[in-house]
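Lab manual, section 2.4: Encoding a predicted structure.

Procedure: take the sequence of the chain (154 residues), apply the prediction step described in section 2.3, and record the output as structure tokens. A sample record is shown.
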Amino acid sequence: MTSREEKRQMKSAARLYAVQALYQMEISGQTVKAVTREFEVHRFGATYEEGEFAEGEPELFRALIENAVNWQALVDQMTDRALVAKWPIDRIDPVIRALFRAAGAELTQLDTPPKVVINEFVDIARAFFPEGREPAFVNAVLDHMAREAKPAAF
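Recorded output:
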């Protein structure tokens, strides 16, 4: 595997871990500092009986978590505008809510091209919901959010 492919995989893993960490924070009430430390020490590249965890890019992981928390109101408002009025963000599945927060943080606070963000997070939705309609739903909402956050990219 080339270093470019390795770097891409580490970024993909960081995004997945960010979704998991945001979900864990919401469910358990853990702080950013505690969950960041837990993931970086116990998940990034760790090997357990049930398998090996991918190595994640710590800088992207931290940026996604911190920005998702610091800019949560902005991201949640963008998400609400992209959702049907009867389904505000607090009524959707907590995994998808964590996914929207991580993706929204990347769309609004980082320089990643919007299409990359959409593709990466739709892939994460497929990992969590392989048989469901959630990936298509995530794609539609993120497309709306990306057009609002970075209209010049479209």
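Check your result against the sample. Residues 122 and 138 are 6 Å apart (CA to CA).
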